[in-house]
Amino acid sequence: MNREGLASLQPERLIKISTPVGRKGVGAGKLITDAATLRALPAATGGQQWRCLAEALYFEARGETVKGQIAVAEVILNRVSSSRFPDTVCGVIKQGTGRKYACQFTYTCDGHPERISEPAAFDRVGKIARMMLNGAPRNLSGGATFYHTTAVNPRWARKFRRTARHGVHLFYARS
Predict the structure, then answer these.
(1) How is residue 63 annotated by DSSP?
(2) pTM of the predicted model, to two decimals?
(3) Cell wall hydrolase SleB domain: from which residue to which, for each copy (predicted)?
């Protein structure tokens, strides 16, 4: 992306909006999938919903490509938009936490302390979280509301339609 294209992204908008995403979402935004362009944006911040999404991306997908991280964010936001799941980002991420084998996101119930030890990785996922909460298009996961890594083969995956693969994550939607 050239400088003119980068300027049109209004990076100040990426930083200032901290409206929680509900079923209706936030205004339309732009999707950045290029790591260098994302790196050039100023650090992102936000409220509780932003923090929940950024932490989920960090603990679930920080080793993935930008597209892989965005696809994980899409799953979370697709769940927020679905009546089958809680209607806030934090609600979706924390669903089932505290109940053995019932959590939706492994890091919330794996017994390991959540420490952000890679500031550059958190900066990147923070920008992705901000971009997605600002209403960037959700077109990388194929409408998925579920995902898992290739390291596991959960039984539920056979029940759903696979919609995408990004890195080591496979994405699924209800048929």
Answers:
(1) T
(2) 0.82
(3) 63-172
Can you give the residue ranges of every domain in the chain?
Answer: 33-138
Say how far apart CA 52 and CA 48 lie, in whole Å.
Answer: 6
Sign of CA dihedral 112, 103, 62, 52: negative
Render pLDDT for 25-62 as a digit per residue (tens, 0 to 9): 333 478 999 999 999 999 999 999 999 999 999 999 99
Tell me how far apart the alpha carbons of residues 16 and 111 are, in angstroms, rounded to a whole number.
34
Residue type, 23: R
Do residues 79 and 56 touch, judged by C-beta distance below 8 A?
Answer: no
Taking only the tens place, the pLDDT of each residue in 54-86 is: 999 999 999 999 999 999 999 999 999 999 999
Q: What is the distance between the terminal CA atoms of the chain, rounded to a whole angstrom?
A: 36
CB 129 within 8 A of CB 61: no
Looking at the DSSP bridge assignments, the partners of residue 162 are 172
Name the residue with tokens 């732009």. Answer: 30
Superfamily (CATH) of domain 33-138: Cell wall hydrolase SleB, domain 1 (1.10.10.2520)
Tokens found for residue 73: 């964010």
Enclosing H/E stretch for 135: none
